[in-house]
Write a structure and sequence with these properties.
By secondary structure, this protein is an alpha/beta fold. It is 58% helix and 14% strand. The radius of gyration is 23 Å and the shape is globular. 36% of the residues are buried.
Length: 425
């Protein structure tokens, strides 16, 4: 059968071959080469950034906002990694958001041992944004770190991120996240690759181009005064993306610190991962389409930002339109070529593998965790299937669910009392 399929492909004319691989030729290849060229330039820029941070001797004062809801087994690891930071002076503020485990007792012990500086206990769960806003009232330093209880940091992570604030126009900095539980399951290993491509390389490219990206709620650094001026975080899912847009609309720069590494826990099963990504994708549509589209695309607005508008269009295309086009293309291949479509699809994924291998090696070239990252290489052949089918189907479902059913307003990530009070867009 394999020989028959290969002979069939050899006999096709140029027009038929172009039709067979049209999605790949006209969408994926240009995208790969354009992003690849930018990534190479961004990598050279990164090498110069390393030299600058090595020569920087400044000490930064940072107030850490750490909202917690359960996860008592993780908080000590996070606190220890914060105390290991170099060239920074920290004020650690922990906000217990209505936890029902023993995290209150652990935090009181940490407070007594001077490992944290403020402990705020909320008896009823109010959501992450509310917890952050309450903690913001206790902040005393000019830079704020917003993070999560399942995050641990490289010893120089906060310093690397804060170096960007030497530019007086920078209002916020996003750190580089990696997967801490990477070897736990197939799902976490594939997420390890996804974080490398989507966060490390993807945001490095966007940062180089000046495009919008979300300041991760797990590792975001902000000028305190900006947070105060914006009245803190808005309630509901997507508070990190919402804050990112507001800062850019306020004419501040947002930067990505690729050398500021932190590690976060990720879902262990594919079902839990699907639920997480569904929440993220719905929140993206809620923020970038429902809430801000009329502001972003108003060319008569004095603070109109072309790169921000292009970034929003990129989201609409890659998260909303591209999954539909790709799945239609695969369906058309199967319908038109039957058994011969199997080899066509395998050829497509082989080329995907080659492109992702090139990106993978580029990331390895500047990674501080080469040995750990190289272990993910064996999962690379499966990654294109994971990314093209699993993640794209979730993205497509999230778009439909949000646009038709407003799914983000029903997300249990925020307590019901908060969901009922948030603005509807």
């Amino acid at each position: 059968m394999l020989k028959e399929i290969i002979n069939y492909l050899i006999l096709q004319n140029n027009h038929t071959i172009i039709y067979m691989f049209c999605f790949f030729i006209f969408i994926e290849l240009p995208r790969f080469f354009l992003s690849g060229i930018v990534a190479i330039f961004a990598t050279f820029k990164l090498m110069r950034q390393k030299i600058k941070t090595i020569n920087c001797k400044k000490t930064y004062a940072i107030s850490v906002l750490l909202p917690v809801h359960n996860n008592s087994n993780l908080i000590k690891t996070t606190i220890i990694s914060l105390h290991e930071q170099i060239n920074v002076k920290l004020q650690i503020i922990v906000i217990n958001d209505g936890s029902d485990d023993n995290i209150k007792l652990i935090c009181q012990e940490l407070l007594q041992n001077n490992l944290i500086h403020e402990f705020i206990n909320l008896e009823a769960r109010s959501g992450k944004a509310a917890a952050l806003n309450i903690g913001l009232k206790f902040v005393k330093y000019p830079i704020v770190l917003s993070t999560d209880v399942d995050v641990s940091f490289d010893k120089d992570a906060l310093f690397q991120g804060c170096c960007y604030f030497n530019d007086i126009h920078v209002g916020a900095v996003c750190g580089n996240l990696k997967v801490r539980n990477v070897n736990t399951s197939l799902a976490t290993n594939l997420q390890g690759l996804n974080y490398m491509f989507g966060i490390t390389l993807g945001r490095m490219v966007k940062d180089f181009l000046g495009f919008y990206f979300v300041i991760s709620g797990a590792f975001g650094l902000f000028r305190t005064q900006i947070l105060i001026d914006l009245n803190g975080w808005n309630y509901g899912p997507g508070d990190d993306g919402d804050m990112s847009v507001q800062i850019l609309l306020s004419k501040w720069k947002v930067r990505f610190a690729v050398l500021a590494n932190a590690f976060t826990q990720t879902p262990v099963t594919f079902s839990a991962l699907a639920e997480q990504r569904l929440r993220w994708n719905r929140s993206t549509i809620r923020v970038r389409y429902r809430k801000f589209r009329n502001i972003i695309f108003n060319i008569y607005r004095r603070s109109f930002n072309l790169t921000l508008a292009i970034s929003f269009l990129e989201t609409y295309f890659f998260q909303g339109i591209l999954p539909i086009v790709f799945l239609f293309y695969i369906g058309q291949l199967i319908f038109s070529y039957g058994k011969f479509s199997i080899l066509i699809i395998l050829i497509i994924h082989f080329v995907y593998f080659i492109m992702q291998l090139i990106k993978f090696l580029l990331i390895i070239s500047f990674s501080n965790y080469k040995r750990q990252d190289l272990k993910l290489l064996k999962y690379l052949p499966a990654y294109s299937f994971f990314n093209n089918y699993f993640l794209r189907i979730i993205a497509l479902y999230a778009v439909i669910n949000e646009l038709i059913f407003r799914g983000s307003y029903k997300d249990n990530f925020s307590p019901k009392k908060v969901r009922n009070k948030v603005d509807k867009f």
